[in-house]
Design goal:
Chain lengths: 337, 280
């Protein structure tokens, strides 16, 4: 498959207001040299703890935030070099689904207006009234025609997310950045929305950047997965390889933290110790070294480069060959059945 | 207005007795102003024979020193007060929304520029500014409305700016940007309708303020000019005869009192009804 989107060495730092007047202004490096590629038609997962910069990456791709440095290319056009007024055309190709279905819909607009707005903005309305086009979209995402004149507050979280997805599809985008699209939903609704997203991908040939902190959802949805820690990608591989054999201690720790819903399985837990360090003042060398069970002297001094460990499997760790030693061992309980 | 607005606001407002009392006064004042010509009374008819009559069946609120009917003059004065209130507040709200929206939406130097201008405007004691301007202009009712409007938009601008600052970070605004909507569309379709609630409260309270200012100016003789009746100039006309003909000052005074009270109660009621912290 051809590469639809490529990101090279993306940087974004936010200025943080100084704690006291006169103190030097601090910079929070939200995204610190991120590079990846997405092939047309695939789903790339972006995982990480909250605050690691994954949502910022999503917004940078659509230039909802201006990057400080780096190159974003979409279908051989440079997104980063595009003048602002040309962005409108880009908005047709790249769209976004938001995390919070309650704040991402304008409370003063009717559902029909919300879904039809992209059509109006891009002059895609056939004839005078976008109604029929909107009703088709609503049908695709599982909303019924009677919802057309309602307001967002009359809907549940899952239905609101469907409204948001219909709005995204209106312009027939090629790439959709889904920023934690199911994190705010009930578990039972999550599955419905995830399945809807997969169905729509098949029907419209969509490419997804799927941002989440939920490894379970990511494994279910994604073809490839990138793991982020403190503004950097620490590991990127096909979902299968990553879940089978993580090559970065952080990925391993994340996997160990996933609960296994089986009372007969007892695990020797290797839980991450310590807090996620502040991105304003990240640790020297490898950002993960203060919490890493494999850390040695070199990890404090040198940042490991993201390099190919196996074909298609990149990790940024000095000791990636050793990773796996602390993988949770699952013991069958001797008394259990 | 959306159904959310209608339902929530109205049900909450209905339960607030003080607000309903205010609404009733405001409504009554509208009726008086509308029905002034229907009363068949002429506010300008001079009748020297029946001058300074105390309230009676023929003249429910008495007559003034030229024998004019005080009731008729108060009814027609209500039209002036309403007109001044609405036009002045309309001007102030328009300017306030425009500048507040620009400052809050674009931020940076535009924000600094506009807000420093607001600070400068707030430095002037507005009543003396009005006095100074009136001294150069003809004291007509239109000049007064415009000047009151031009000196009272700063509060609205600050309110709107604050709303825009918080709303522009909300996801639905980011979503509108992601769709490719232009700035004007984002401002007028997405942010402004969600920022109108505090403006509505401010405008309701502002009407009371504008009516008071007009009365004060007319009282000082630089507002609405006689023989056009206004509550303010009726008040001053009755001053000399306060001891003998109390009805000349008391009734216009009460009219001002209740009208301002009505708008204030209604405004505060709307504010409470829209406060999300107050649960049903």
């Amino acid at each position: 498959m051809p590469i639809l989107l490529s990101v090279e060495n993306l940087h974004k730092a936010f200025k943080v207001s100084a704690k006291r007047p006169g103190a030097p202004k601090l910079r929070l490096k939200a995204v610190d040299g991120v590079s990846f590629e997405i092939e047309a038609g695939e789903t790339l997962g972006l995982v990480g703890e909250s605050g690691c910069g994954k949502s910022t990456v999503g917004k940078l791709l659509l230039r909802l935030i201006e990057p400080d440095d780096g190159i974003i290319r979409f279908a051989d056009k440079s997104v980063t070099g595009m003048p602002k007024r040309e962005l409108t055309a880009l908005r047709r190709d790249m769209q976004m689904i938001f995390q919070d279905p309650f704040s991402s819909l304008n409370p003063r607009m009717r559902v029909g207006e919300i879904i039809g707005e992209p059509l109006v903005v891009h002059d895609l309305v056939n004839g005078k009234d976008p109604r029929n086009q909107v009703l088709t979209l609503m049908d695709k995402v599982g909303l019924s025609a009677e919802h057309y004149d309602r307001y967002p507050h009359e809907f549940s979280g899952g239905q609101r997310q469907r409204i948001g997805i219909a709005r995204t599809l209106a312009v027939q985008p090629r790439l959709v950045v889904a920023d934690e699209p199911v994190s705010a939903l009930d578990l039972s609704i999550q599955a419905q929305i995830v399945n809807l997203l997969k169905d729509l991908q098949e029907e419209f040939g969509l490419t997804y950047l799927f941002i989440s902190h939920d490894l379970g959802v990511i494994e279910h949805v994604c073809d490839r997965v990138a793991v982020m820690y403190l503004g950097r990608i620490v590991e990127i591989a096909s979902a299968e390889d990553l879940y089978d054999r993580p090559r970065h201690p952080y990925t391993e720790a994340l996997m160990n933290a996933v609960p296994v819903p089986d009372p007969n399985r007892h695990r020797q837990k290797q839980v991450l110790s310590g807090e996620i360090p502040s991105p304003i003042d990240p640790p020297t060398g490898c950002h993960f070294h203060p919490r890493c069970p494999y850390a040695k002297d070199i990890c404090q001094k040198e940042y490991p480069v993201l390099s190919e460990q196996l074909p298609g499997h990149k990790a940024a760790c000095h000791f990636s060959a050793e990773v796996g030693d602390f993988r949770t061992t699952i013991n069958q309980d001797s008394t259990g059945g | 207005m959306s159904s959310f607005f209608r339902e929530v606001l109205w049900t909450r407002l209905k339960r607030n007795r003080m607000a309903m009392a205010g609404a009733l006064i405001v409504f009554a004042m509208f009726c008086f102003a509308m029905l002034a010509p229907v009363s068949g009374r002429d506010p300008g008819a001079i009748d020297i024979v029946h001058r300074l009559q105390p309230p009676s069946l023929d003249y429910p609120l008495g007559t003034d020193d030229l024998g004019r009917d005080v009731l008729a003059r108060i009814l027609y004065g209500a039209r002036i007060s309403l007109l001044v209130g609405f036009v002045a507040v309309g001007i102030a709200t328009f300017i306030g929304i425009l500048l507040g929206a620009l400052a809050g939406f674009y931020g940076r130097w535009i924000d600094s520029l506009i807000m420093r201008f607001v600070d400068i405007m707030l430095c002037f004691p507005s009543f003396f500014l009005i006095l100074a301007v009136i001294a150069f202009l003809e004291p007509s009712i239109w000049n007064i409305m415009i000047i009151i409007g031009l000196t009272s938009w700063m509060g609205v601008a600050r309110l709107v700016r604050a709303e825009f600052l918080s709303l522009r970070e909300r996801d639905f605004v980011v979503a509108a940007r992601a769709i490719g909507a232009r700035d004007t569309r984002i401002i007028f379709r997405h942010i402004l309708p969600n920022a109108m609630s505090p403006v509505l409260v401010s405008a309701t309270l502002g009407i009371a303020g504008a009516i008071l200012t007009e009365s004060a100016l007319s009282f000082l003789g630089i507002g609405v000019q006689p023989p056009t009746p206004s509550w303010g100039n009726m008040l001053i006309a009755g001053k000399q005869t306060l001891g003998t003909a109390w009805w000349l000052s008391v009734f216009p005074g009460l009219a001002i009192l209740f009208t301002v009270l009505g708008y204030n109660l209604l405004g505060e009621g709307i504010r409470d009804a829209m406060d999300p912290r107050i649960k049903d």
